[in-house]
Amino acid sequence: MRHTFIFIVSLFVTLKVYGDTNAGKNIYNTKCLMCHGSTGKGDGPVGSNLSKKLQPLKQTSEKQIIDILKAGPKGLMPDFSSLSASEKQDVAKYIIEVLLKN
Asked: Over the stretch 56-99, which tens digit does the pLDDT of each residue have?
């Protein structure tokens, strides 16, 4: 019984470390979709009306996406410091594994 419990806890921790695409999609739809659009091409309702055209999201590492969510590009993107580390990981996983694969 003890080994089963340890395995289940280890599995849960392992899965969460790598992010949750469903949670990432929900966060993306709430925080990113307005500018980046449903396909990540910068054609959201706000993004398509910006004076500086948004570059499409591109295949990159999860770390690079998380760094952008942490720090900006200053003046070009809202501050997402309110997102937890886990939420940033979820968004990165969603962008890489779902959004950019479609």
From this structure: 888 888 999 999 898 877 778 888 889 999 999 999 999 999 99
pTM metric for this prediction:
0.79
Annotated domain spans of the chain: 2-101
Nearby residues of 44 by Cβ (< 8 Å), 6 or more positions away: 33, 34, 35, 36, 37, 38
**Calpha distance 44→66 (Å, rounded):** 21
d(CA 81, CA 102): 28
Confidence at 36, pLDDT banded by 50, 70, 90: very high
Helix residue ranges per DSSP H, 32-74: 33-36, 62-71
CATH assignment of 2-101, among 3.40.830.10, 1.10.1040.10, 1.10.760.10, 3.90.110.10: 1.10.760.10
Within the chain, residue ranges assigned H as helices are 2-17, 21-31, 33-36, 62-71, 85-97
